[in-house]
From TrEMBL:
Matching PANTHER family: TRNA (CYTIDINE_URIDINE-2'-O-)-METHYLTRANSFERASE TRMJ (PTHR42786:SF2), TRNA/RRNA METHYLTRANSFERASE (PTHR42786)
Subunit structure: Homodimer.
The keyword Glycosyltransferase is annotated on this UniProt entry: no
Secretion signal, residue range per the UniProt entry: none
Alphabetized CDD domains for the sequence: SpoU-like_TrmJ
Protein name, entry field: tRNA (cytidine/uridine-2'-O-)-methyltransferase TrmJ
Keywords of this entry: Cytoplasm, Methyltransferase, S-adenosyl-L-methionine, Transferase, tRNA processing
Upper taxonomic lineage: Bacteria, Pseudomonadati, Pseudomonadota, Gammaproteobacteria, Pseudomonadales
Length: 252
């Protein structure tokens, strides 16, 4: 089940932090590391700091974009050391551990996303996440070292997981419908944006925060596969209507 949990590090500058994160993960039983465009990897400093977690580094996947790192995920949690302009659903590290374990136990991949050492995650990257997680550190000095932040959340995941191990065997849960994956959601957002421009609701010259607000809305809606098909169908028919193309449903 812990195999369904991936740690995503975006644009890491110092390979030592990649090694430190790998060690923190392995200590807590996590093994899936994804690196989005790291500045330097593989690197001797990463292996040195991993000190024994070389298998996590060897299995690490390097991808060019965050979108690729999140492909297949049903839940994405982004970490942030400070408040951002558009308020987003927030989780405490403890709730983050719990939500991560519940989703991973359901069989769908979960991503914990960490930002750059100097600049964190961009607003665009944070808006791809369902929730933001803030480690409630000293407000006068709230930014943890990257590997230390990975350690805190990996520990919370482990604590939540251990609690499920000790729990008496529960009866079979009714199977929850599979949630739409991040790649399906991204395809939907592209389709939604195009359609909103076509119907004249979204002005590309003055988009304001419309797409970010819609991402926040759909992100907290737990959209499943069937609902995703319905949403895509509505967009397709809307586009046909504005383009004057024939409808799926025949006129009476
Ligand atoms: N100067 C950056 C901080 C980057 S710290 C900024 O102001 O955003 C590098 C990464 O460690 C962050 O992107 C985040 O993933 C994680 N991190 C550090 N401190 C954190 C905190 N208090 N809560 C959550 N994540 C934190």
């Amino acid at each position: 089940m812990l195999q369904n949990i991936r740690v995503v590090l975006v644009n890491t500058s110092h390979p030592g932090n990649i090694g430190g994160a790998a060690r923190a993960m392995k200590n807590m039983g996590l093994g899936q590391l994804v690196l989005v465009a790291p500045h330097s990897f593989p690197a001797p400093e990463a292996s040195a700091r991993a000190s024994g977690a070389d298998d996590v580094l060897a299995n690490a996947r390097v991808v060019p974009t965050l979108e690729e790192a999140l492909a297949g995920c049903a839940l994405v949690l982004g970490t942030s050391a400070r408040d951002r302009s558009l308020p987003w659903p927030m989780l405490e590290p403890r709730e983050c551990g719990h939500k991560t374990v519940v989703a991973a136990a359901g069989g769908q991949p979960v991503a914990l996303v960490f930002g750059r050492e100097h600049a964190g995650l961009t607003n665009d990257e944070l808006q791809r996440c369902h929730f933001h997680v803030h480690i409630p550190a000293n407000p006068d000095f709230s930014s943890l070292n990257l590997a230390a932040a990975v350690q805190v959340l990996a520990y919370e995941v482990r604590t939540a997981w251990l609690a499920t191990q000790g729990a008496p065997a529960a009866g079979p849960e009714p199977a929850a419908p599979a949630l739409a994956t991040m790649d399906q959601m991204e395809g939907f957002y592209r389709h939604l944006e195009t359609t909103l421009v076509e119907v004249g609701f979204l002005d590309p010259a003055n988009p304001r925060h419309l797409m970010a607000r819609l991402r926040r809305l759909f992100g907290r809606s737990n959209v499943d596969h069937t609902e995703m098909s319905i949403l895509r169908g509505i967009l397709t028919e809307t586009q046909k209507a504005v383009r004057g193309e024939p409808h799926k449903r025949k006129e009476p």
